[in-house]
Model the fold of this input.
Amino acid sequence: MNRILLFNPRSAIAKHRIPNSILNIAASVEGKYEWTIVDGNREESPYERIHELLLTGLYKYVGFTVMPGPQLKQAIPFAQSIRKHFPNITIIWGGYFPTNQYKVVLTSGTVDFVINGPGDHSFPRLIDALENNLPYEFIKNLIYISGDNIIKTVKEDLIEQDSLPRLPYDKLNSIYSIDKYLGKTFLGERTLAYHSSIGCPFSCSFCAVVPTYEARWKAKSAQLVYSDIKYIKDKWGADAIEFHDNNFFVSEKRTVEFSRLIRPEKMNWWGMARIDTMSKFKDSSLALLREAGCRIIFFGAESGNDAVLKQLNKGGTQTGEVIAAFAERMKRFDIIPEYSFVLGTPAATPEQVEQQIDFDISFIKKIKQINPKTEIVLYTYSPVPTEGSELYNQALEQGFKFPQKLEEWISPQWENFDLRKNPLTPWLTPKMIDKIRNFETVLNGYYPTVTDIRLNTFKRKAIHMIAGLRYNINMYKYPYEIKLLHRMWKYRQPEIQGF
Ligand code: B12
Ligand code: SF4
Done:
């Protein structure tokens, strides 16, 4: 038999989202091949479930979606077990991790094919080829081993998103109730995760989207996005939306059209954007967005330091000044800007690395003064293989190396690397990392994120007051009392678990 099992490894402890990555892949084979999904987020013992399904003998292909970080903890050992117990099963990995780290994935001997970027065409074509014993070397977006060589087939142009089949929500619902994928968040009681565009037209040198999409972007039309959302709202009662697009707001026209359509539905929503792009949006568009339910937007601010922005290849028009002015402008529209920063980029000397960190700590405090509602997300620069970029070359020159064995990726050090909290980059000393993390703890204490809905007013006030003793005099070292409160109250960092 030739059924397909699609597996979504566990990615979060709670508030599970619709597994859009494998649902897209399921849509690509719907009606042609029988498929099922195992969602590691929704199963107590996902491997047992996989094993049980494979024992039926009905399945011939297992597809994994894999992002770096916690998903690897199930992806790696599960793939190894499948290989051992069911050697005839073809194992295919897709998603950001295998696309960027294909060498270590394929040479592990556990994975037969990597889908390099979008799988909507390449996956069904690969299965067709394997089923009919046809050659697959002309199928685009594939990576595999042939003899001693790793073969990468050509990349496909980005697909017109409106031409793709609709996601099989009803079938997903018959396997895992959609109801439980609509979680309570800051935005609403039943929040839907939706992905309305792929890629991103920019090429920031620290970003994993770049090697995959090579500065290309394609979006579904506003009308299609609206009708999908309306379907889920009417059928399962979604009342808020998290847009998971890398860059939802690329087109002002599409954003405005979507806002007009969604406004009467009274749903709150969130998405990711660039400051320089949105700085150019008209006042009337920003006002419409807010009216249409847009409550909070995630922006890659990255740094207030113009030289670092250049190093990060942030596009040329984003400067410290633009970032600060935009935080001020967002106050008028009552939309919360969620600014993310990337600290700890390489520099010529350790002193310079430290100066950059200090500069951005002061800059973040300045942003908070300008618009105290700005949410801050702090990442530490964890290289991604943006081959040819100056930043990645600098990282390599300074001795940075990715793991050479697949299993190494699940060691605690590399997991922290993936979480962009404690990267193993040679130019960052433990003291510098402590400085960044301690500042983050104090900042999150003084300004607890609004997206953690379990923190009540009392807890917010208490932690704000305690952290204020440090924040106001720039004393960040050893913030144990704040850490204790965070632990006690299970403070939720949106960048790790979502909100
Ligand atoms: C939703 C999301 C999460 C959710 C979890 C999602 C879930 N499934 O439960 C949460 C919030 C938990 C999360 C957390 C993290 N995430 Co995350 N996440 C995303 C996000 C926003 C959307 C993923 C998605 O649903 N895409 C929609 C689908 C349609 O697109 P896709 O995955 O690319 O799938 C296509 C192809 O890749 C391919 N494909 C994918 N899977 C498969 C499988 C098969 C078999 C095949 C054939 C093809 C295939 O075909 C698909 C259709 O064309 C992406 C960014 C993005 N916009 O994609 C980041 C992203 C994947 N996350 C990322 C990271 C780093 C993380 C974290 C590890 C760290 C962090 N601090 O952000 C954490 C921790 C992860 C954890 N706990 O496991 C990075 C990965 C970067 C990298 N270095 O590779 C991304 C790219 C964000 C970014 N721009 O940096 N994340
Ligand atoms: S704008 Fe954002 S998604 Fe696009 S390349 Fe830069 S960091 Fe990546």
